[in-house]
Amino acid sequence: MLFVVDFDETITAHDTISCIAEAANKPDLWSFLAKAYWDEYLSWRSGLPKLTTLSSYLDLLRKGGFAEAASIQRIQKHKFFEGLTPEQLEGVASSITLRDGFDKFLQLLMPRLRDGTDEFHILSINWSSRVIEATLRRIPDIDTGLITIHSNDLEMDPTNQLTTGKIVPFHAESLILTADDKAREFQTLVRSSPYNATVYIGDSSTDFGCFSHASISILFLATEKILFTLESFSDVRLLKLDASYDLSNTKERPQFNPSPLYQSQSLKAQSLSQTKIYTCDQWHIITAVFRR
Description:
The protein is α/β, with parallel strands linked by helices and 292 residues long. The chain has one domain (2-289): HAD superfamily/HAD-like (Rossmann fold, 3-Layer(aba) Sandwich), CATH 3.40.50.1000. The chain has helices spanning 17-24, 27-45, 54-63, 66-77, 86-92, 102-114, 129-136, 179-191, 208-211, 224-231, 283-289, and strands at residues 2-5, 119-123, 147-157, 162-170, 198-202, 216-220, 236-240, 275-280. Strand 5 (198-202), helix 9 and strand 6 (216-220) form a beta-alpha-beta unit. The protein is globular. Pfam families: HAD. InterPro entries: HAD-like_hydrolase_phosphatase, HAD-like_sf, HAD_sf. It comes from Schizosaccharomyces cryophilus (strain OY26 / ATCC MYA-4695 / CBS 11777 / NBRC 106824 / NRRL Y48691).
C-alpha cells in the first residue's frame, strides 16, 4: 500500500513554515512579506462565487495560484532566507510538536516499509525538507531513509554551506505551492506505484486535489470551515472513520477523472462519481484501521 501524507498540521500540531521564518530572524521583513501575500490572496478570495462541486473548486484554486507564486518571488527577491546554516534549520525541529499518536502510526509501518509491503511519502508545500526530516528523526525507531519527502527546500551554497535565499523543488518536478501542484506530484507517484491501493491523508484545501485521486482519502482534524466547504459539494461524500474499520486490504486502484464532474445537489446521494473522503481526528484511529 502506498501512503502519502501532508506534513503541516497533519503530522504536526501547528504550521511550521512560521517556525522556519523565525529562524531567519527578520521580523520586520517577514511582516511586510506576509501582509503582501494576504492582501493579494484575500482580495482574490473576496470575489469568488459560491461553488457546488469539488471539481469546480479545484479549477478555481488553480487560477488562484498566482498569490503563492508572487509570494515566493518576493521572498527570493528580498533574500529572506539567505545565510542560514544546516544546524539552524535542523534546530527548528526542536520547536515542532507532532500530532499525538503519529509516532505510533509510523512505528507500525516501519517493518512493512523495510520489507516493501508498503511505501511512505510526505507531500508538502513546506519550504524546507531538512526541517521535515529533522522532525521525523526525533521519533524513536524510525529509519528516515525509508521515507521519501516531496516538498520545497532552501537552496544551500555548497561552497560555504549557507542558504542562498532561493527556494527550490525537492523530489518534485517543480515548486509545490498549491493544491494543483500537490495533485500533480501525487498523480505521478500513483501512476508509477506498483501498489493497488493509495492512501492520502491531509487537513486542508491544498489536499483536495489529492483526495480526488486517492483510493482511500482521509481528511484529518479539519477545521469547521473545511468540513463545511466539503459538505456543500455535490460530488463529495464524507464518512466518519471508525477504529473498527479494516482498510488495510483495499484492492482498488484510484480512479482518474480527466474532466470535471458536475451534478445537482439532488443527485448527491446516488452519485456514482462522488469522491469519498473519510474524516478522522485521531492518529490512533488511523493506526487501528491499517493494522494488519
